[in-house]
Amino acid sequence: MSLTTIDFSRLRLRPGDRILDLGCGEGRHAITAYLEDRVDVVGLDLSLHDLGTARERFADFENPEDGSRSLNFTCASGLALPFADATFDKVICAEVLEHIPAYQAVLLEIKRVLKPGGQFAASVPRFGPEWICWQLSDEYHEVPGGHVRIFRKRALRQQIESIDMVCFDEHWAHGLHSPYWWLRCLFWRQGEEIWPVRTYHRLLVWDLMQKPRITRLLEALMNPLWGKSNVMYFVRGV
User: Fold this and answer.
1) What CATH number belongs to 8-127+138-175+228-236?
2) CA–CA distance from 88 to each of 41, 114, 118, 136, 160 (Å)?
């Protein structure tokens, strides 16, 4: 399975939950949610190409005979979600808000479609590691569809809480990945095949596939220092 940023044990999935993965990309969180419990998941994204990849990946995991769970993908904008009010028990928005100029409107849409008492998980790049990337390479964030801002965790948390959400948990993630992106930005024009980038990428793939204790320990130690992502969990007021 692909690398995930959201910790589903903190999101507390329950059988029968309806889950929206907003900005699902190639489906990493949507497919993981489908596999975690007997839930109904919608993966939503603007990119038809990414949705096509997500559907192809899901084909390896889908069990059509299991009527206790489902996963469907749809193409739509987070600025105008095609769902009724209070549709979902959980909403995931992982590494998406930093791409959207009018992200405040997306937050309001998330609140609208989330049931009272429902849970919302958001992740964005952490300020420090992201700032270093911006200093090392303009191309890193100026590519089409790239990052348009760097969030400060406290400010984003307060903004989400201002729309009747309460933060009940938070953590950092992907400490091993920050050095990779610093190398990638440092050698941006040389590409991904230059040996420092290629070698570190092999380490990340090995970690993802094997999950050895040494890299799990290293990541736990590195996350508080320079974890690549801030992850926050909210509950909507009732």
Assistant:
1) 3.40.50.150
2) 9, 5, 7, 40, 17
